Amino acid sequence: MTRVFPEKGIPWATLKAEVLEVQKEDPKWREGRMLMSCYFVDDALMDMTREAYGMFLLENALYSGAQAKARKVGFATITQFEDEIIKMALEILQGPEGAAGNTTTGGTESILCAVKAAVEYAKAERNIPGTPRLLLPFTAHPAFNKAAWMMGLEVTRIPVKADGRADVEAMRAAVDENTILMVGSAPCYPFGVIDPIREMTEIAAEHGIWFHVDACVGGYQAPFVRKLGYPVPEFEFNIPGVWTMSADLHKNGFAAKGCSTVLYRDAALKEYATFRFEDWPYGSYTTATVVGSRTGGALAAAWAVMKYLGEDGYLEAVGTIMEIKKQIVGAADAIDGIYVPCEPDVGLITMRSDDFDIHAVADAMLERGWLMGRGREPRSIHVAVHPIHAKAMNGFLSDLSGAAEAVRSGAFAGSGQEAVYAG
Fold first, then answer.
1. Can you tell me the distance from the alpha carbon of 288 to that of 64, in angstroms, rounded to the nearest whole number?
2. What's 293-313 look like in SS3?
3. 194 partner at 20 to 30 Å CA-CA among 72, 78, 229, 333?
4. Cα separation of 235 and 130, whole Å?
5. Are 151 and 180 in contact (CB under 8 A)?
């Protein structure tokens, strides 16, 4: 086996040169040529984020919180960061008096926390005769199935309606005595549409079922879209039946990777997700999230971004996103053979074709230097719009038209690559 771990340390200048060489193969997201995953506003925000992150790179967020601060054994700065992040999050998402939350490392962890809380709530407050079950629209994020896999739960996914939104009556019919959690998305990632959250929560309330809104993508975008005058379905805590919500700051909150939020209607609900352990030599161990140690840098960066942008900064960024979305939807509908099946509520756009293989269009775009997402059911291509894409729109739309024509005419056949979200 070829040795990888060096016997002697390598100077950073050498390592950096190696990294820069390999990086040439990465998608050119800074040029707006990656239409997924990289949530970027501008270089000024990036520089500020990098500096704030670096200031707390080695501080451990495990040693934070009110008790740590009171005992003077933790980091008061990180405690302040998380406290203010959660307060700002609840202001944006209309949290009621007494609401609470935690920062996490990402949307998956936020979802794991909410599912764990629902499990413990069901154990304490309900008599579940069989295996606890999660009830989801087909479009809900796979992290819910990951949570079920880890916790020994069952999952039922219900087909959605033609507009991509959850089928309320089908969800109602699927509720049974073992259902402990219902989920709605704001929006679902595949189609960018927000589920009918209020109607779904009413079903959950009839049965005493925990209801979670997965707003990982839209939590820090959709409220500002609405403030700009666009029609956005309600999904926030102003709906009484919403118990918990996941919302990622490292997506449309524009923070550095590694920061999401899980929010609870009432601080008492957070207790169901809190782990406590006393039986070891070192003393009490308590965490309200899944992980233990994590860098304080992610919290410092998220706090700094939210404060730096403020409401006006988010409105400006979201306004740019919605203008780009309008351009892409209009251009896609004007291309012969391509259509947008449902009007997205935010900056996520799905394109389909009944005339040719739409994945071949994604292949043709990749050859032109554009990386797009792909959907499997139904076959589609997918764009997640960020402000960085404004500078690349003319080239993107021109190449999209050319790629579609090449596939439609038979000049380009595609690779047969299938949709893969992660792995």
1. 12
2. CCEHHHHHHHHHHHHHHHHHH
3. 333
4. 30
5. no
Q: Domain limits at 344? A: 29-40+311-408
Mean pLDDT of each 10-residue bin along the chain, 423 residues long = 91 96 89 83 92 92 71 79 96 98 96 98 95 98 98 98 97 98 97 97 97 98 98 97 98 95 97 94 89 93 96 97 96 94 94 95 94 91 93 94 94 76 55
- Examine the domain organization and report whether 78 and 188 are in the same domain: yes
Last residue of a domain, one of 305, 325, 346: 305
Return the percent helix, strand and coil in the chain, to nearest 5: 45, 15, 45
110, 122, 145, 236, 297 from 214: Cα distances, Å: 9, 20, 13, 10, 25
Question: What amino acid is encoded at 379 in this protein?
Answer: R
Q: Which long-range contacts (CB under 8 A, 24 or more apart) does 52-56 make?
A: 52/297, 52/300, 52/301, 52/303, 52/304, 52/305, 53/256, 53/295, 53/297, 53/298, 53/300, 53/301, 54/297, 55/297, 55/300, 56/295, 56/296, 56/297, 56/299, 56/300
